[in-house]
Amino acid sequence: MAWALIHAGWMHLLLALINAHDWTMRYVTNFSTEVFSLLNSIIYFHKAIQELQRTHDNLSFAAFLYAIIGAIGTMLVAIFLSTAEKWQPLLHRYMRMGLAEYAAAISIIIFIGLPHVGELASLERSTLHVSTSFTPSSPDRSAFFVRFWHLPIGWIFAAIIPGSIITVLFFFDHEVSSIICTIDRYGTKKPSGFAWDIVLLGMTTALCGILGIPPANGLLPQAPLHSESLMHTEKEEILISVDGEEKVEHRDVRRVHEQRWSAFLHAGAILIFVSPPFQHVLGLTPTSVLAGLFMFMGEQSLSVNPILYRFFYLLTPPSELPKLPTDVKSYRGVHAYTVVQIVVTIIIFIITLTKAAPAFPVLVIMLVPIRLLLLTKLWNRETLRFVDAWACRKGTPEDDKDLLAGEVSEKDSPNPGLPNETVRDV
Known about the structure:
Layout: H1 2-17, H2 20-24, H3 30-58, H4 61-81, H5 93-101, H6 103-113, H7 153-158, H8 160-180, H9 194-211, H10 224-229, E1 231-242, E2 245-256, H11 261-273, H12 278-282, H13 287-303, H14 306-314, H15 332-352, H16 360-378, H17 381-387, H18 397-405, E3 422-425
Antiparallel strand pairs: 1-2, 1-3
Helix pairs in contact: 1-8, 1-9, 3-4, 3-8, 3-13, 3-15, 3-16, 4-6, 4-13, 6-13, 8-9, 8-16, 14-15
């Protein structure tokens, strides 16, 4: 495993040097990112169920019931606090912002302390396993570093294969999660440092191999939960041209507060809590709280996924559905598109539970050519233009085809959001 991660490290550096993002992610559409986001939400909920299942197997029934209460409570309190900015005029604005931005942390602290109160203190509970000393956790190791140089040369080259699989998984995982966290609804202005992110990821992956520990790439390296917590409202002056007349309007715009402090503080907190004596504090965390955190992250990711809202359309009477653009004839194509996304996600999730799980990144990547080559033959252009778009650039694949075919010029291409007016920042 050490050499597989070392190979993955230099492959990440190579991808960053050749700026692989520009010639790979430019073909990714929202079809793939929405499926990937839904997959991550399902995995979060599945991880929560697994944690509760372990509690059921190892503790008493009373402790298991409280674990369910603790998990659901952690999730619900975090969801409730995340809406604090809407509590106006209750509390000061900055206090509401603090509650919303640190909703998960506050909820976790509450439910870590709650089991120590009153009769709950007598209940047995399962907590996170942490090391009690600054030594390798494996009893078979006396040093932190793996003696990777003792491996025969043949096995070193053979490790390139699993290293390539890890690289594909990490690269696509990080790229797509970065795209999800910088979509239009977040209103980000600064460009994402995709290449630098991959360089850092490659270095940490190689370091994990040398230390003999699992690679430190999370389920979502950049979680939408972070972007959601940084959302705020700004006043913006918009110059609008209507029927040849220009006027200035003030609009409330929701966008992410772009800064480096939150990520820096998160990294610092991680370093603090993986070192003694703070590891002991981390060890007080019940696994039910971890399950609740997984549920909260799954809910936050799911709540901003367009698939969820289109799924609700499936349950909505036709007379209550929003009006479609004139080019889209009916909701049948939209509903079929949504069902296909859900079915594809479930299939990939089931594969992650089998021995073929290491191949699931390849399946996610295959969604890109499936969207560009197959779906265009099953759905009409207007429906695809309505439900999908490029993930990293403006427009849709159908717009690009129209431009190449000379059907519309870039100058006359309509703005799908504002059909009757031209908007630009003052």
